[in-house]
Write a structure and sequence with these properties.
The protein contains two helices and seven strands, in the order ααβββββββ. The protein is an alpha+beta fold. It has a four-stranded antiparallel beta sheet with strand order 4-3-6-7, with no helix packed on it. Strands 1-2-5 form a three-stranded antiparallel beta sheet, with no helix packed on it.
């Protein structure tokens, strides 16, 4: 096996080392000891090395573009329609039916007022003859209410004499007195009392025997 064949084998074994392969080929040509003219075989296409040779300039690296993120637009906030305000419903107060009011039973009102007093009876007296003579008759004339009873009392010097009568429809009563031997010049007082329907009245008159 020639040195070239070895170099090719080494190159195939180490495909990534292109620089080492080239060096082996050169050395094989320089120090080759075989008399036979080396047959030049086309080399198989070696895969291109991944890494670029050191002497080759690396292509300008384009700086990665920084993705500019656009500022996030604020999403429009969905505006909710205002909830309807609950209007408080005022319930009318329950009205109770009015209680039946019983009319008070009529009470008998007892009047404590006294009936007005009946007017007093009228009473006035006079003598038909104020200076009668002894053994004569004189009359007491009384004016009062119609139908009233009349009582006349003559007070003599020695005794009292009472006579009675009734007033007529005109209210006049006449009560006579018989004078016997009454003391002359002595004033005889006659007291008169009239009465009707529980009412009474009094009056007086007098006479002097002569």
């Amino acid at each position: 096996m020639s040195h070239l064949s070895r170099a090719v084998r080494l190159a195939r074994r180490y495909p990534k080392s292109s620089a080492a392969l080239a060096l082996v080929v050169v050395l094989a040509g320089v120090f080759g000891g075989d008399d036979e003219e080396p047959s030049v075989r086309p080399l198989a296409t070696l895969p291109s090395p991944t890494a670029a040779p050191a002497h080759e300039e690396a292509p300008p690296t384009t700086p990665p573009r920084t993705a500019t993120t656009a500022p996030a637009r604020p999403s429009p906030t969905a505006t909710r329609p205002p909830s309807p305000t609950a209007v408080p419903t005022t319930r009318p107060a329950a009205t109770r039916p009015p209680r039946a009011t019983h009319a008070p039973s009529p009470r008998q009102v007892v009047s404590t007022r006294r009936p007005p007093a009946a007017p007093a009876l009228a009473c006035s007296a006079s003598m038909s003859d104020a200076t009668p003579k002894q053994y004569s008759t004189t009359t007491v004339v009384v004016r009062t209410a119609s139908g009233a009873g009349v009582s006349a009392t003559a007070h003599y010097s020695t005794k009292d004499t009472t006579n009675t009568g009734t007033a007529d429809s005109s209210g006049t009563a006449r009560v006579p007195f018989r004078i016997s031997s009454a003391k002359k010049g002595y004033r005889v007082v006659v007291d008169v009392v009239v009465s009707k329907s529980g009412r009474t009245a009094s009056c007086s008159t007098s006479f002097v025997p002569s």
